[in-house]
Design goal:
With 467 residues, this protein is of the alpha/beta class. The chain has 3 domains: 226 residues, TIM Barrel (Alpha-Beta Barrel); 82 residues, M1 Pyruvate Kinase, Domain 3 (Beta Barrel); 124 residues, Pyruvate kinase, C-terminal domain (Pyruvate Kinase, Chain: A, domain 1, 3-Layer(aba) Sandwich). The chain is 36% helix and 24% strand. It contains 17 helices and 22 strands. The strands form 4 sheets. An 8-stranded parallel beta barrel has the order 1-2-3-13-14-15-16-17, surrounded by 9 helices. The radius of gyration is 24 Å and the shape is elongated.
Length: 467
């Protein structure tokens, strides 16, 4: 796995990428995390694909993306032209002039003037009158409505449970199958994350909060504090908010995540045209490069790798763009408190700053703490960060962090020197270090009961191996 970008690639697994040999090639080309979309997968598929991924490599982190609460048009058997005025309802009526949707309290929650968007915003309505259970709307932007299309109501707090019954079942599956991450779709506040965590209690599965609605944006700070990672789900976000707001929000959210030392993922339509073309558009190349320059930890491919014609080429292209962009980027320190604690945070930025002055070749972290890794990785140092852990679960969790390559040691002992020797032997043996390379080593203290990783030592590989 040479020439793999620091910015990690998440690939959605679907019919286009179920083949073992193809998955292996995608992994070798930079796919380090595999996402399964529960909207289109049942338990049998979740089990089959998760086992398949583990057989390809135990290094690949698995992500289950929940469906969340999505309002849709229902009961429509053919395309309908929407223009002038249209009536919506949640009731079961047989009037062909009325569009039925899956939101049961529509008439109670909207008011005159509320905007309602159909088909990802391609059709735009505004409530003119509410009569019993009927919501009569003026059509601001007409169009052809197809069956089962989405309905968005951006300006109201939707009266939905944090976790639907389907999501609850899918999260239980993820827990049983030892998925590394679960994505909480349409996260609105801290309580939504807490409810997902309560279902996952007793497991090591972490929670990624998907930011894709107005409430999620307004409550972002408390969501960030509660969650383990963030996904900027630009699809629904671009429907719920004005499109021109999304690029600005992307930059703001990424920076806040870096300050907190928590991984952040940019998702949706990154190489969309590669579903049917071997080459992306120039705009898509710029979008991927900008996500890298913004400081994202990960970028996600969706339909490109799940149902598209060129899943392998999509991974290879994203990796190429990221590598080229990272090649011109400089050390970028950020400030703020992370879960690692203020002492470790000061320590982390000092290590990265020293790399610019002393010019060592890599940073080696020997720790089972993912928060320490996040505290160092967030500064986007130009040199690689090697993390050695005795936990396979932590190995996969650390895969989310930009610039981090992980190594497994069966057991970290109380003998710090021995841990360093084994770690350096392993990394040197993989060809990632040379004898004359100088490395900065972060490790735990030998003082009993001291919890923080607070020893920094700089040494050459040769001196360590000859010790």
């Amino acid at each position: 796995m040479n020439n793999i970008a620091k910015t990690k690639i998440i690939a959605t697994i679907g019919p286009s990428s179920w083949d073992d040999s193809l998955l292996r090639k995608m992994f070798e080309s930079g796919m380090l995390l595999a996402r399964i979309n529960a909207s289109f997968a049942d338990y049998n598929e979740l089990e089959r694909v998760s086992k398949q991924i583990r057989n390809i490599s135990p290094r690949i982190a698995t992500i289950l993306d929940t469906q969340g609460t999505k309002i849709r048009v229902r009961g429509l058997s053919k395309d309908v032209v929407i223009k002038d005025t249209v009536t919506l309802t949640s009731e079961d009526i047989s009037d062909p002039n009325v569009i039925k949707i899956t939101y049961p309290s529509l008439d109670r929650d909207v008011i005159v003037g509320t905007k309602i968007l159909l088909d990802d915003g391609n059709i735009q309505l505004q409530v003119r009158e509410i009569r019993d259970k009927m919501v009569i709307c003026n059509v601001l932007q007409d169009g052809i409505l197809k069956p089962n299309k989405t309905v968005n109501i951006p300006d109201i707090n939707l009266n939905f449970p944090a976790v639907t019954e389907k999501d609850k079942q899918d999260i239980e599956y993820a827990k049983k199958l030892n998925f590394d991450f679960v994505c909480a779709s349409f996260t609105r506040n801290r309580k939504d994350i807490q409810e997902v965590k309560s279902i996952l209690e007793g497991s090591n599965t972490k929670v990624i909060a998907k930011i894709e609605n107005k409430q999620g944006v307004l409550n972002f700070d408390e969501i960030l504090e509660e969650s383990d990672a963030i996904m900027i789900a630009r699809g629904d976000l671009g429907v719920e908010l004005d499109l021109e707001e999304v690029p600005i929000l992307q930059k703001q959210i990424i920076y806040k995540c870096r300050m907190a030392g928590k991984p952040v993922i940019v998702a949706t339509q990154m190489l969309e045209s590669m579903k049917t073309n071997k080459r992306p558009t120039r705009a898509e190349v710029s979008d991927v490069a900008n996500a890298v320059m913004d400081g994202a930890d990960c970028m996600m491919l969706s339909a490109e790798t799940s149902t598209g014609n060129y899943p392998l080429e999509s991974v290879q292209m994203m990796n190429r763009i990221a590598l080229r962009t990272e090649g011109i980027m400089k050390f970028s320190p950020v400030y703020g408190d992370t879960d690692a604690g203020s002492e470790t945070d000061r320590f982390g930025i000092s290590v990265c700053k020293l790399s610019e002055e002393i010019h060592y070749n890599a940073i080696l972290i020997i720790s089972d703490s993912t928060s320490v890794v996040g505290s160092v990785s967030r500064h986007r140092t130009s040199i690689p960060i090697y993390v050695v852990s005795s936990s396979l679960k932590n190995i996969r969790e650390n895969t989310l962090y930009r610039g981090v390559t992980t190594y497994y040691i069966k057991e970290l002992s109380d003998d710090r020197d021995r841990n360093i020797l084994i770690a350096v032997e392993k990394i040197y043996g993989s060809g990632k270090l040379d004898l004359l390379d100088k490395i900065a080593i972060i490790s735990g203290s030998s003082i009993k009961n001291k919890k923080t990783d607070s020893i920094l030592e700089i040494a050459t590989v040769k001196d360590i191996l000859n010790s």
